[in-house]
Design goal:
By secondary structure, the protein is mainly alpha-helical. Helix content is 80%, strand content 0%. The radius of gyration is 13 Å and the shape is globular.
Length: 82
């Protein structure tokens, strides 16, 4: 997961500078987080950037799955809060 964290930081830096980001490492990290059930809201934006950069069908499906997992997490949090 540390490679994922490094690439997330690189992605944040890239937004202010023009440095490279390993989108495949981010994709792998997102898959791991999805499998572990550890998706957070910021992961949706990262998944969107990964899908845009890679452009493959699998990266777009990953984005949809990450978005769905984040939405389910929000809905569960709202149910618990009631």
């Amino acid at each position: 997961m540390s490679k994922y964290n490094e690439q997330v930081e690189a992605l944040m830096v890239q937004q202010t500078k023009d440095e490279g980001t390993n989108f495949r490492a981010l994709e792998y990290g997102l898959k791991q987080k999805l499998q572990d059930g550890a998706i957070q809201q910021q992961d949706v934006a990262i998944a969107l950037q990964v899908a845009s950069a890679i452009g493959s069908l699998s990266s777009r499906v990953l984005y949809a799955n990450v978005k769905r997992a984040a939405q389910q997490s929000v809905e569960q949090t709202e149910k618990v809060g009631r």
